[in-house]
């Protein structure tokens, strides 16, 4: 697919959560239709997509049928099984490509890749057994954090090590999975850059946002981030470097720690990112449309920001605040239509315009 | 339905064109699902709605099934057959209600209603036959315009009378339908007010926009309209008067002619309105969300405007300009995904933010 996707074209999206939902809406603005593939029944994205396939990631026939019905494939989360991608790849273009996925699916590969670009990361060591862990703790010191190499998100698959007594329980928590120990970085702020790269190699970045996490889950993103001019341009250049190195097509989220000396890459996400939701009410073109434009082979949009915004996630019972939020001036409410409220579950978010 | 519609609730929309499409997207932001009812196959709104019923307006069984699957019913166009509404009304709440529909479905009833509120309209006379027409032309003078009382939109069902020679052809063009002759109003601008009323009677209006029509079709809306403070507040008060008189729930479009002495009501549309599309990029809460909020029994949103905007419709071959528009700074492109380009067909619109 070298030409831009024509009006009425179909974008296949792997994963039907809130990100797929908002991607579908953005695709509709550009005259496209979406087909969601998700193993769970009634995915939130299904409410705003023309087609939904409900089938396991291993269902060879369903995957082939899905591919036959779409023009291009993208995804809303990075932990798609390799076998699924192997099956889809010869059938339709997958954007962003396999390289970005393989890098971001494995925390060790990701850190080695970032270092290979001359970027800074937290100190780390691979851990494949209890002996590795003891050696890694010696090397990096405590506190440190042990993480599974694969399939972690929102603080899951992680164990903090503050004292020697935490070492064995941390290893046990990995349940035998390959892991990586990360040293702590002392930082003043967490920021993220949401950047996009188009099929022709053009790059566009949104203004960096400043993130507040609670219990491993993003609570709030504020734009503009408190950065000086040098840090702001460094953050964007660094994101562009990653995009170019991966020959990337689509939107990428880059989480960074800000220290007095440097910007340290925490992690990258090869997809639209929770910390980019503010763009829905702060920009003419939001991150979801930017991603769809890239995936469809359209020119990237103008990511200029017209307002200061605070994005706040609505997690679990936060949903009870919606009636009040709906009445609040300068607040835009975005709900995901999830059938069940659960503690720690992202139910929606609000963007508050700061005048 | 006196309480607000709960998360996951289903809004039934009669009509699946671009207005239904953008209503569906707005409903998804508030955690609702939509079910579109439209006689034509593959309606544009179907791309972003969870369910679509394709059936004629006369299909009693399909209508009953549709009603059983939704919590509340709204519509994207006013020319819904009376029998359809008669069937649906006892089954589910219809918002806005029958009164607004019956007033706006008939140009004569509409003008009489507006006059009864003390509002100004163009001079008019009912025309039920050639003799009526001759008498009405005598009374109102020429030029004048003959319109069918019912089912007209985008300049259809209209014939202009400039000289006596136009009278008979104008009558013939009505094909025997009851009509209304309207005198011309000499105005400086055409503006419209997009206003909403909630279930509790609260009213909110967006800033009036100034419209440019070409060949009976809206070409452009600019906000702010060139109005003095008095005209601006009069326009909004007048819209509120109409909303209250109709005990209205939802968004209403009011088209006005501006003369040195007065605001003259051209017509009202009991639905979201093409001249309100600018709100998508000029406000935190757009007209589509405002309508869904009202229909769902939620509080109305803050309609404050954060930017000056020019909305331009993309009609027929204007679609060829999309590649260039996608590259233009401060332009947001909205396409409707219609399968076929036809002359005079609205294919999309763009909102240009003016800085």
Percent of residues in beta strands of chain A: 25-35%
Assembly state (oligomeric): homodimer
Q: Give the tally of structural domains of chain A.
A: 3
Distance between the termini of chain A: 43 Å
Average pLDDT rating of chain A: 95
Largest interface: A-B, 48 and 48 residues
Q: Identify low-pLDDT runs of chain A.
A: none
Helix percent of chain A reads 25-40%
Instruction: Could you tell me the CATH topology label of the largest domain in chain A.
Output: D-amino Acid Aminotransferase, Chain A, domain 1
- Shape of chain A from CA axes? globular
Overall SS class of chain A:
alpha+beta
Instruction: Tell me the radius of gyration of chain A.
Output: 20 Å
- CATH C-level of the largest domain in chain A: Alpha Beta
- The number of helical runs of chain A is 11
N-to-C SSE series of chain A?
EHEEHEHHHEEHEEHEEEEEHEEHHEHEE
In the CATH hierarchy, what is the architecture of the largest domain in chain A at level 2?
A: 2-Layer Sandwich
- What kind of sheet is the major sheet of chain A? 10 strands, mixed
**CATH H level, superfamily name of the largest domain in chain A:** ATP-grasp fold, B domain
């Amino acid at each position: 697919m070298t030409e831009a996707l024509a009006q009425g074209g179909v974008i296949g999206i792997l994963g039907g959560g809130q990100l797929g939902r908002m991607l579908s809406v953005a695709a509709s603005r550009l005259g496209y239709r979406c087909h969601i593939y998700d193993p769970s029944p009634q995915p939130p994205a299904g409410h705003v997509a023309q087609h939904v396939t409900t089938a396991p990631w291993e269902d060879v026939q369903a995957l082939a049928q899905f591919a036959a019905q779409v023009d291009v494939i993208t995804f809303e989360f990075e932990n798609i099984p390799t076998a699924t991608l192997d099956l889809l790849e010869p059938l339709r273009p997958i954007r962003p490509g396999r390289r970005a996925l393989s890098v971001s699916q494995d925390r060790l590969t990701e850190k080695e890749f970032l270092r290979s670009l001359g970027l800074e990361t937290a100190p780390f060591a691979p851990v494949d057994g209890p002996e590795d862990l003891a050696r890694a703790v010696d090397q990096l010191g405590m506190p440190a954090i042990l993480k599974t190499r694969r399939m972690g998100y929102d603080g899951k698959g992680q164990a903090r090590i503050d004292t020697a007594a935490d070492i064995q329980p941390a290893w046990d928590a990995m349940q035998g999975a390959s892991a990586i120990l990360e040293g702590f970085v002392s930082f003043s702020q967490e920021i993220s850059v949401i950047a996009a790269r188009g099929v022709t190699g053009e790059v566009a970045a949104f203004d960096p946002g400043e993130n507040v996490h609670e219990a491993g889950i993003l609570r709030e993103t504020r734009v503009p981030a408190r950065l000086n001019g040098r840090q702001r341009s460094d953050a964007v250049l660094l994101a562009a470097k990653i995009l170019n190195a991966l020959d990337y097509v689509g939107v990428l989220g880059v989480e960074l720690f800000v220290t007095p000396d440097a910007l340290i890459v925490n992690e990258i996400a090869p997809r639209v990112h929770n910390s980019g939701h503010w763009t829905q009410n702060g920009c003419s073109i939001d991150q979801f449309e930017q991603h769809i434009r890239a995936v469809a082979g359209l020119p990237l949009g103008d990511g200029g920001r017209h307002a200061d915004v605070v994005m706040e996630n609505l997690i679990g019972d936060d949903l009870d605040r919606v009636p009040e939020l709906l009445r609040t001036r300068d607040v835009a409410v975005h709900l995901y239509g999830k059938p069940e409220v659960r503690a720690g579950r992202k139910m929606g978010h609000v963007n508050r315009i700061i005048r």
